[in-house]
Structures are given as structure tokens and as C-alpha cells.
Input
Amino acid sequence: MASSFLLEADKATWPDTVQGTRQLYDNWAKTYDPELKQHGYNGPTATVKALVKWVPDKTARVMDIACGTGLIGEELLKEGYSSIDGLDMSAESIKICKEKNIYGRLVCSEVTTNRLDIDNDTYDATVCVGCFVPHHMNEECFPELARITKPGGFLVITMKQAYFDTSEDYNYGGKFEAAIQSMVQQGKWEVVARDHVEGYFGEHNGVTLVFKIM
Output
């Protein structure tokens, strides 16, 4: 049986405040890894596969946004990436990341329209996995993700297909696609790939979006 945390995730009944969401992840941190692995979470693997294709240089500096307890970092390390930083809003998740000794710099922060404590053009690649979820990150943070990524670098986003589809009402709807195209029109990035992810999370499929920063 799925945990109460996973049931909330599947039903999109997350807290509707930053503080509430942070507390949920703090409470979940110790069991997060085994629960997601048990229920077939394929997001990290799909994302790293895309990164290998678009950023084959294993010395590239990578930022793992909403790194959680380090599942994506583990996959990056397995593929040979050696310069990985992470950011997450949950202090308890950050503690677990530190124990894994995967990341260089770890930043504890939510991602909104506010400026992160990261310089412009810092990363060769930025990855975001499973964080575009109702009451989590949304399309308003696109400019900030582009800002911290170097021109010519790549942003890779993997998310549940239903949250991306404009036909579904998961607080994203057409806003997500419209924001993507707005960034294209502003010359901030170009869309270089949209890949289907079979079995992204259990029976749910996903999509991996790859943007080249301009």
C-alpha cells in the first residue's frame, strides 16, 4: 500500500503554502528514497539519460533543482558526472544529501520568482525532476532557471505527463505551454527535445523537456 505521502502526491492534495509543503518533505525525508523506489519512480533515470545525450561532458557543472534526498544526484554520479550542486526547500532532505556526499554546494531554498543565491550563468546544465507539481514549482520560475544556466547550456525538466497536458486542470493547464513559448519568443531558450517517459511513476507516464539556453 502506498504511504500517506504518496497518496497525497497522486491525488494532488498537497499543502497550499510553502511552509506546509516544506514541513511535509521534512517529515517524509527519512522514508522518501525507499518509498519512491518501491513504487517505480523512473524520473531520475529518464532525466540523466537526456542529460547524457545533450551534455556528454562529464566534467560539466550541474545543478539539481529540488534535489530532495539525492536520488537524481545518485544517478548523475553513476553516469560519471563529477561536479554536482543541489538545491531543495527541505532542510531534512538536505541533511540526507550531505550524508550521501554527492553534492558540492547545497542550497536550502524554494524556487519562485525571487532571485536565488546563485550567480548568473553558473551551470552548464540544470535539471528539475518531479518538482513541477501542484503547489510546488510553476512556470513563473522559468526565467530564474534560465538565469543560473550558462548560455549554450541546457535545462532538463522531467514531470508527470498529466501535469503538462493542456487538457488537464492541475493548476498548469495552458499556462505551462504558454510560458515555454514566451521564453522562446524572448530569445531566452529554444526547445530542443520533448521525450515521452514510459512508466515515469508507477502507471503514470511522463515527459522530459530539454531547453537550450540562449
Notes: The chain has one domain: 4-109+121-213.
